[in-house]
Design a protein that fits this description.
The protein is an alpha/beta fold. Helices cover 43% and strands 14% of the residues.
Amino acid sequence: MDIAAQFGVSRFQVATLLKQARDQGVVTIEIRDPRRPSRDDDLARMLGVERVQVVDVSGTTEIEGTERVGTAVMGALRQTLRSRMTVGISWSRTMDLAAKFLPDLPPCTIVQLAGALQVPGSGTLPQVISNLGASPDITTLPIHAPLVVDGAATARDLMRQPEIAQALERADGLDLAVVAIGAWQAGESSVWEKVAAADRDEALAAGAVGEISGRLFDAAGDHVATALDDRLIGVRYDQLRRTPHVVAVAHGPARAAAVVAAAAAGFVTHLIVDSTLAEALVDLLETLDDES
């Protein structure tokens, strides 16, 4: 109303212009909890990440909390993505749910960074990427394959398919990537649940604490190479390291050690976590600081 009065237009015109500006990424509106004015900044400093965004999930169900996190992820994508960028989006249960909140995007190239896992209720992300391909301003490079296959030979054959090969090669030149961090333990990684006990044990013995699209890493953030690597169809760890902007998401306190390790890897620029994980991160980082 104040803007309308100042410029002699109706408040409805102002509302329309503001909506257009938000859709185009010119204007952003953030709501911060005044009770925790510096928590995000403190976590970013402690983790050594450019930006940390904490999503308050207090008083929500698990699905409601995940949807709040998903909305934040897609909001970060809208704020960061610029016209003609190449953006990679990796599959995970969180990203699959977040795809429902995908905003209108400027002309860009979208690369699916990993195949999907068949879990109950999944399938949104590949479908959304497929639908975006109908837009003349958006180029999509999907991966029509599972993330994990039974044998290395099968993985090699699939990755030689022209569409999949093109997507994985394009991951060498990403401007932005959106990925999810999983902890290498039961209940905290979709990949853990889909591989054999021998794969889990080999990775644990090698020091794995977390994974991104099945690519394992240790507490120092270094890639952990195992036989599982040869059966994965997705972005490589070194490709993520070369990506200038990486938005990473994680939720739940059990993933604290994996998030600290991912931050140590040095390629995460924008971290989105829920409030339960944020508290666990503070506790863990303070403990590690005391021990050092």
